[in-house]
Structure formats: structure tokens, C-alpha cells
């Protein structure tokens, strides 16, 4: 292997200095020369030594403390892994099934909304692990809950009861429309369970002769079909994939489960025509489409679906895997619509980064489920449930959700003011809470790459990512005040022309908005320059 970058193997010739621009320059000279010889220069942005890196012009003592913290984090991140980014990427290529087109980044540590790569470069994380790290990286209360529970009991299987599992179920029930909860390990598994529960419910219900509604509809057999929406995403396992709209995800694995129907998001009339035929077991809908490009449902649409389901006995399933649990500024994304589902699926942020999924159901749905109908070895373990309880505590702490709303509002306002009408490729800024995005009429991929070069992690979403890109911002809920402006500054001050889109027209996003790389905001806030290696 090439030279390892474990700094413990370097001699103590460590020095550092501040540059005028506020960067802290660190260098390790290797006398041990473990294969590579020469020293390695690492730049740590001085401002990013504290999270967030906003209070830079401070006293010497504060500055020293910030530098010490940066140094510790850098050392911990690097020495813990003992591999360079390139070595990790080479090993990935060799040993892993190539299902992910990963960005060329290897992260070794995270704190708050900052991630550090194997070479010590820091990145502002505006993705939160695709809407997972609701409390940011390394949150103290979450860490305490996880380490305490891990030291007591991690896993017992679902053959036995456990205290964190019932406590979490109780909390979810008390905080929602639901009467009962089933735990899974991911979003796709939650939807898989929801499909099974919906089918079982329809089977049990259709067998009840006294159910007049079903007799009136002239149903002979239990309804098994499913309705879903274009641009919707529900997961990658076969059942959930059958109701995920992206054709390229589904085609290679056909035949999928039969009887899945896709409608335009909002096409109540089309859905109604099909559902009144009596064969549809459930309608799966995201109150705010996430992967599809952040589209909140129109109120009359969700309310119309509820009414239709009430009239026909079809179950209404809200997939809140991405938009739920505070992401929109409400605990549940469906809250402002004033309608409840029969089933709601959750996952991503629930355990703050540990794998979990949950299916929340009404008593009516639950009563159709018997022992042995579904299960999972790992699901709802004491460890993940303890983690999830700590996340719920935080989400439900007074002020947390309000702050998601105000931060999301600031982020949208900032992006709208700076981009809409000013850059010809930006057609819209939309979103709700901290699920925000910028619609472009060109591919967003080059912008994501350029932002990455500049030290900010963003992702894309949307319908046709090659022709109409969507830049998605899904920071964690603890995103500090002013980081919305900060995120904007990243986009605007990216100096790396070679990282910009190749086509001349696509350069516009960057070139039109080039700005000085440093700016004073208030008295103490200064945009740090980012380190490049
Ligand atoms: C709305 C929605 N449902 C389901 C899933 C699948 O979740 P997972 O990746 O945990 O299986 C996702 C993932 O992005 C999602 O956004």
C-alpha cells in the first residue's frame, strides 16, 4: 500500500502558522518516512476549528482553544483510520459490489454540521447523510444515550421484550395519529411492511360479511393493487421498488409485484377512477416528495385522497421516511394538511444515524395482523430504540421545530434573493422547513462537484437530472444561525474555475455571481476561505 497517513508515525516536527487569510497552516515532516518520505502539509481552516466557524476574530485564548480542538479532531480522524482517501477508494473499487457512484470523498470524522476527510479537509455538510443526521454529527446527548445503552444491552431479538422498544413505541403513538407501531431497519423495509399490512387488512376486511361498504362495492376478492405517484420514491426492495416511480430503478428487476399504478402527483381524478373499481389495497404518497425534487402536496389533493379512502376502504399510507420527524418544521409533514393516514412509514432520522424504520398504524389496521405475519431479527433493538428516544426528546424539546422552520425560511430567502432572477439557470427555489432546493435548467452535477471542491456537501434530486438539475439542501436541524448565509457564500465564492461546468452556458451559475472571497457580516462574522489541498 502507499504511504499511510497515520500522523502518529510521523516525527514530532509539527508546526503551524496562521496565514493572513485566516487559514491555519499545519505541516508534519516525516522522518520515519513510512514509504513516502516527505512531509505532508495540511491546511486547517482556522475558522472551522470551532463549529460553527463563525466567531473568528476573537481573543488569543479563544483562538488557541479553537486551534487545539482542530488539531485534536484532525489527529483523531486521521490516526483512527490509518488510510489515505486514495487507498480507501482503491479498496472500495476492489472489494465492494459497485452499486454506488460515490463522490471521491472519504470522511473519517464529523462534528456538528462539519465533516472531515482522511486528509483533514473540512466540509460543511448540507446533506445530513440524506436527511438522517437530524442532530448533526456527534451530538452529545445522542452519544450519551447510545454509549449508555450499548454498555447495558445492545440486542436481544424480537423473541423477547425490551424497555427502549416499548418506550419508543409509546412515544410515537402518543405523538401521532397512530395506535400501534411495528419496527423495521430502514425506510424500504418500513414500506415493505406497510404493503403487507395493507394487503392483510384488505383480506381480513373482505372476509367480514357484515362489512356493508365492501358488499356495496360488489367486491369479490380482497383488494391487492397499489397506487403510487410519479417522482415518488419508496425504496429498493422488491415491494417498495414496485411503487417507486423511476423506471431505471425498476426495469432491470422486473417482473415486480403486479398491480402497481402510477399517477401524476396531484391527479386526484385519475386515482379516483381506479380506486372506485375496488381493487386497490392502498395509496402510497409522500406528503412532500423528497427524492423527486422537494414537491409539497397540494392540500386539496391529500384531503381528496383521505375522503376517497374513507369511502372505499382503501388504506392511505403516508411515506414520511424523508419528510417526517421534524424535517418540514412540524413533527409530521402531514400535520398542516389536517388529514391523517391509516399507515405512516418512518426511518431516516429516527435513530439519529443508526438503522431503523417504523410503521405507525391505526388499531383497525393492526387488528388484521397476527403473530408470524411479519418480523425482523434486528428491528427495534434496545440500542437503536434508545438512540431514537434521544432523538425524539430533542425534536420535541420546545423551540426545536420552530427553529427548523425559521432556519429553513432563512435558507430559502437567502437563496431566492441571491439567485432567482439573477442567474439565468436558476428557475426556482422551493422547499419546506430544512428540505430546500434550487431548480436549475441545466444539470446540477457540476455545481455539486464545484461546491464539493469548495468544501460544501450538497446532493441532487429531481426528475431528469441530466437536463434539469435540482440542488438539494437538507442540513440537520441544529444548523446554526447564519449558516444559511454561509452556505450561500460557498456557492458564490467558489474560486475554482476548473471545477465549474464545462459548457459555457453552465458557467453562468458561477461566473455571474463571483464575489470577493471574504466578507464581513456584522462585526465578528467573516467568511473563511476554504482550504484546498
Ligand atoms: C420517501 C422515502 N421512502 C423510502 C426511502 C427508502 O429508505 P431507505 O433508503 O432507508 O431504505 C427513501 C430513501 O431515500 C425515501 O426518501
From TrEMBL:
UniProt pathway annotation: Amino-acid biosynthesis; L-arginine biosynthesis; N(2)-acetyl-L-ornithine from L-glutamate: step 4/4
Catalytic activity line of the entry: glyoxylate + L-alanine = glycine + pyruvate
Keywords: Amino-acid biosynthesis, Aminotransferase, Pyridoxal phosphate, Transferase
Cofactors that this protein relies on: pyridoxal 5'-phosphate
Record's keyword annotation contains Transport: no
GO biological process: L-arginine biosynthetic process
One Pfam family matching this protein: Aminotran_3
Gene Ontology MF terms in the entry: alanine-glyoxylate transaminase activity
Entry-linked SUPFAM superfamilies: PLP-dependent transferases
Cellular component per GO, a single term: mitochondrion
TM helices/strands, residue ranges: none
Subcellular location field: Mitochondrion
Similarity remark: Belongs to the class-III pyridoxal-phosphate-dependent aminotransferase family.
Cited NCBIfam families: argD, PRK01278.1
Protein name: Acetylornithine transaminase
Amino acid at each position: 500500500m502507499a504511504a499511510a497517513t497515520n500522523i502518529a508515525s510521523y516525527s514530532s516536527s509539527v508546526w503551524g502558522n496562521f496565514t493572513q487569510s485566516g487559514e491555519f497552516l499545519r505541516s508534519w515532516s516525516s522522518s520515519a518516512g513510512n514509504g513516502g518520505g516527505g512531509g505532508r502539509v495540511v491546511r486547517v481552516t482556522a475558522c472551522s476549528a470551532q463549529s460553527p466557524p463563525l466567531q473568528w476574530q476573537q481573543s488569543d485564548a479563544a483562538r488557541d482553544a479553537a486551534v487545539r480542538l482542530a488539531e485534536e479532531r484532525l489527529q483523531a480522524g486521521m490516526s483512527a483510520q490509518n488510510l489515505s482517501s486514495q487507498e480507501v477508494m482503491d479498496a472500495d473499487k476492489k472489494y465492494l459490489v459497485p452499486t454506488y457512484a460515490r463522490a471521491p470523498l472519504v470522511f473519517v470524522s464529523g462534528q456538528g454540521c462539519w465533516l472531515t476527510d482522511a486528509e483533514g479537509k473540512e466540509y460543511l455538510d448540507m446533506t445530513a447523510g440524506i436527511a438522517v443526521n437530524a442532530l448533526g454529527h456527534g451530538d452529545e446527548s445522542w452519544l450519551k444515550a447510545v454509549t449508555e445503552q450499548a454498555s447495558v444491552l445492545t440486542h436481544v431479538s424480537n423473541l423477547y421484550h425490551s424497555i427502549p422498544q416499548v418506550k419508543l413505541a409509546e412515544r410515537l403513538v402518543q405523538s401521532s395519529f397512530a395506535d400501534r407501531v411495528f419496527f423495521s431497519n430502514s425506510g424500504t423495509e418500513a414500506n415493505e411492511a406497510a404493503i403487507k399490512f395493507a394487503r392483510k387488512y384488505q383480506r381480513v376486511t373482505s372476509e367480514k360479511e357484515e362489512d356493508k361498504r365492501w358488499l356495496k362495492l360488489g367486491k369479490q376478492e380482497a383488494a391487492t393493487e397499489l397506487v403510487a405517484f410519479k417522482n415518488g420514491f419508496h425504496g429498493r426492495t422488491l415491494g417498495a421498488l414496485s411503487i417507486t416511480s423511476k423506471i431505471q430503478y425498476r426495469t432491470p428487476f422486473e417482473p415486480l409485484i403486479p398491480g402497481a399504478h402510477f399517477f401524476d402527483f396531484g391527479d386526484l381524478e385519475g386515482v379516483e377512477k381506479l380506486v372506485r373499481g375496488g381493487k386497490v389495497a392502498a395509496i402510497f404518497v409522500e406528503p412532500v416528495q423528497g427524492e423527486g425534487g422537494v414537491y409539497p402536496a397540494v392540500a386539496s389533493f391529500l384531503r381528496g385522497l383521505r375522503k376517497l379512502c374513507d369511502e372505499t376502504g382503501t388504506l392511505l399510507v403516508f411515506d414520511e421516511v424523508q419528510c417526517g420527524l421534524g424535517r418540514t418544521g412540524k413533527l409530521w409533514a402531514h400535520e398542516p394538511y389536517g388529514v391523517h393516514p391509516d399507515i405512516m412509514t418512518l426511518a431516516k432520522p429516527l435513530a439519529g444515524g443508526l438503522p431503523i424504520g417504523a410503521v405507525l398504524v391505526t388499531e383497525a389496521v393492526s387488528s388484521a395482523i397476527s403473530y408470524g405475519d411479519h418480523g425482523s431479527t434486528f428491528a427495534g433493538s434496545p440500542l437503536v430504540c434508545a438512540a431514537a428516544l434521544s432523538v425524539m426528546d430533542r425534536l420535541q424539546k420546545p423551540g426545536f421545530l420552530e427553529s427548523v422552520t425559521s432556519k429553513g425560511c432563512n435558507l430559502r430567502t437567502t437563496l431566492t434573493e441571491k439567485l432567482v432572477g439573477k442567474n439565468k439557470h436558476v428557475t426556482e427555489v422551493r422547499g419546506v422547513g430544512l428540505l430546500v432546493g434550487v431548480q436549475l435548467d441545466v444539470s446540477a452535477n457540476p455545481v455539486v462537484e464545484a461546491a464539493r471542491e469548495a468544501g460544501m456537501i450538497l446532493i441532487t434530486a429531481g426528475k431528469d437530472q441530466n437536463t434539469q438539475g435540482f440542488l438539494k439542501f437538507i442540513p440537520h436541524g441544529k444548523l446554526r444561525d447564519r449558516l444559511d448565509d454561509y452556505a450561500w457564500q460557498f456557492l458564490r465564492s467558489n474560486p475554482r474555475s476548473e471545477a465549474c461546468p464545462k459548457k459555457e452556458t453552465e458557467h453562468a451559475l458561477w461566473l455571474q455571481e463571483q464575489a470577493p472571497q471574504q466578507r464581513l457580516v456584522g462585526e465578528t462574522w467573516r467568511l473563511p476561505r476554504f482550504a484546498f489541498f
